[in-house]
Amino acid sequence: MALRALSPSVASTPLPEAVRAGIGALVGLVIVGLFVLSPAVDSQLGLYMIAPFGASAVLLFAVPNSPLAQPWAAIVGNTVAALIGVAVCLHVADPALRIALAVGFAVTATILCRALHPPAGAVAMTAAMTPDAIAELGYRFALTPVATGTVLLVLIATIYARLTGRHYPMRQVDDLNVNQTADPSPSTRAGLSEAELNSLLERYRQNFNLGAGDLARLVGAAELQAAAQRIGPVTAGTIMSRDLVTVSAGTGAQEVADLFRRHRFTSIPVTGPGRRYLGMIFQIHLIGADMLPEDTARSIMEANVPAASTDTPLGALLALMADGAVDAVPVLTGLALVGVVTRTDLISAFARHSMLK
């Protein structure tokens, strides 16, 4: 048991996600270092890199959903810690006592400001350990380099998250859903208010690790998984539609629109030779698109729709379609399209299960 306590407590992370986080931190620090801050200490302008920026980059790019990584926590936390570190450095002569007081006061102050950000402790320690630089910069150290560098990292992290399909800053419970309306997305309708979710986080002392929005999404995902398990071992191959109407990449947009009207579909797959899957066209694409006469299926299809295999369990399909981003999931064998699971297929599966109980 003692040895098990030393094993990793974090779930394994896919390689692409680890690489995404590493590249983000690299890009963020390179941009800050090359264009704004100098790697060498500049006690005149104060525009120089400090080690805590590396710790901030870990949070901003690797765990962007953490409450400790949000813009308020990062910017306010680092700045408040810098102010405290400077104040202690200017008034306490003993190095060991200076460092301990700076970090201790910074931890207390950032918690009271609701801006706990672990690198802030390192910011306070950096100020306490560099009395010569602080003597020249004084409280300006909090503005440059600390606040300036942190703001830049937050801006870069925000842009990088959007470009790589992630959410930063953290999604809140009352964020607009995929339809841009105020109703909570289905995955966050946990039956609990934001205040109740926050109360749960405080009760179990998890409010520094998880936000109310993410807790709602976890509860919703758990409910979907439990519902899928009650149905039994139903897979995509069991419930998918097999007799498919498809179009080629070169099919004209007008012909695609005619197929939607004729068959009353909400989605149509796009395939190549040998039924090779290329993408999906959703009815909403036609409604919102400013189509030109020369447009084809390739120009209006969505190529990044999540796909399933015939063995994908129902629970995974529920999670893919719960938030309304897609209403159909292609089912592939290798690269070939063999079926499509729609929301109607899911509803029918649940209805059959209910009648058999």
Automatic annotation (TrEMBL):
UniProt keyword annotation of Transmembrane present: yes
Q: Which domain of life is it from?
A: Bacteria
Q: Which InterPro entries match?
A: CBS_dom, CBS_dom_sf, HPP, TM_HPP
For this UniProt record, the keywords arranged alphabetically read as follows: CBS domain, Membrane, Transmembrane, Transmembrane helix
Report the Gene3D superfamilies cross-referenced here. Answer: CBS-domain (3.10.580.10)
Query: Which ranges does the record mark as transmembrane?
Result: 18-38, 45-63, 69-92, 99-117, 137-161
Residues annotated as domain CBS: 240-296, 301-357
Q: Name one Pfam family in it.
A: TM_HPP
Q: What SMART domains does its record include?
A: CBS
PROSITE patterns per the UniProt record, alphabetical: CBS
Name by which UniProt lists this protein: CBS domain-containing protein
Say which species the protein is native to: Paracoccus hibiscisoli
